[in-house]
Amino acid sequence: MARAKANKKSDNPGVIGTTARESESGSAQDICSGRRIVDIPYLAEKLKCHSCQELLSLKNIEREKRMGLHSLFTIRCKKCLKTTIVSTGKTHTTRDSHQHADVNTKAILGTVHAGVGCTGLNKVLACLNVPTVSSNLFKRYEREVGPAIEESAKESCRRAAQEERKLVIENIDKLCDEL
């Protein structure tokens, strides 16, 4: 009975929500078309059934919930036939207590640093056949990395000012002679 349900094709394979995209279909190849960015050591560690500890196969993915570049796979165990949700990478808690995926934070930080924005990131992802990032998700993560970038820039300016002050003090006699 569980197998029949696993092989049933959904009438709506691409349900789109505000924070995640879910796919459900007959085979892992249908569900996870294209490429994904995964943390290989993390994924390998998590590919175990929560019930019987059997190693899980990516061939048995029944559902994918995408949140930007991060995915949660629902995988059925061949041994006990129960499902386990497996994350493709690590997450972290933001200052405002939200769970954010590391891969999304790093991708958005990279695009801000490179000055390309959401459209530029999505053009690269499309060429790589990786699912794209919504503008809402991009904005949410941009609000996370923005203050960190600002603080880093302020700290860099403080260090530069201290260094300049130190050099002026060390070379005060030479500077006075030149003036």
Automatic annotation (TrEMBL):
Xref: InterPro entries: Mutator_transp_dom
Top-level taxonomy: Eukaryota, Metazoa, Ecdysozoa, Arthropoda, Hexapoda
Species: Fopius arisanus
Recorded name of the encoding gene: LOC105272121
Mutator-like transposase domain residues: 34-176
Protein name per its UniProtKB record: Mutator-like transposase domain-containing protein
A Pfam family it matches: Mutator
Region (Disordered): 1-22
